[in-house]
């Protein structure tokens, strides 16, 4: 059963333990099997956490807070999660946030500046970015794009 679960995608020890508990495998047997799988390297929560963080940060643009929540839900130990999250450099997190904002800004040309700002900061917050970073990035990107793609002001006219 465990090999079948591991063949589809990597899993944490906690996820596999939950699966064994659902199948009513006795705790002693489950622990013994999970220990053996860990010993031979089939289960490695630290490697899982590192791969998860890299994949989800690069692929979905998630910030550290959202990644930490996902790892916690998957049963990764807090210390392992912290170690994996330290692999994301602050400038890398900021660059990812900027890329997300730039991509989203393309579809916001017809919005008022305040509406665009609120939506962009909200998007970054949902993706797990700190509020201060989100606000800084959004303000800078709005200022940078005002010249090439001016947003509407409160009157519905393009800002000058």
Provide the fold topology:
Elements: H1 2-8, H2 13-22, H3 27-39, H4 45-60, H5 64-73, H6 78-85, H7 90-105, H8 113-126, H9 131-146
Helix pairs in contact: 2-3, 4-6, 5-6, 7-9, 8-9
Which regions contain 5 or more consecutive residues with pLDDT less than 50? none
Helix content: 55-70%
Give the percentage of residues in beta strands: under 5%
Whole-angstrom Rg: 21 Å
Q: What is the 3D shape?
A: elongated
Measure the end-to-end span. Answer: 64 Å
Largest sheet: none
Number of helices: 9
Structural class: mainly alpha
What does this structure look like?
By secondary structure, the protein is mainly alpha-helical. It contains 9 helices and no strands. It has helices at 2-8, 13-22, 27-39, 45-60, 64-73, 78-85, 90-105, 113-126, 131-146. The chain is elongated.
What would you say about this model in short?
The protein is an all-alpha fold and 160 residues long. Helix content is 69%, strand content 0%.
């Amino acid at each position: 059963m465990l090999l079948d679960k591991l063949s589809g995608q990597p899993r944490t020890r906690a996820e596999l333990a939950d699966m064994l508990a659902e199948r009513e495998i006795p705790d002693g047997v489950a622990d013994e099997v999970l220990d053996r799988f860990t010993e031979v390297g089939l289960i490695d929560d630290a490697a899982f956490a590192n791969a998860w963080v890299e994949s989800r940060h690069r692929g979905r643009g998630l910030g550290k807070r959202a990644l930490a929540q996902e790892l916690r839900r998957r049963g990764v130990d807090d210390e392992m999660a912290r170690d994996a999250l330290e692999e994301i450099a602050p400038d890398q997190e900021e660059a990812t946030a900027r890329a997300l904002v730039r991509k989203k800004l393309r579809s916001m040309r017809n919005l008022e500046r305040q509406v665009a700002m609120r939506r962009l900061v909200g998007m970054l917050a949902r993706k797990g970015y700190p509020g201060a970073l989100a606000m800084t990035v959004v303000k800078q990107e709005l200022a940078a794009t005002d010249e090439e793609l001016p947003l509407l002001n409160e009157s519905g006219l393009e800002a000058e």
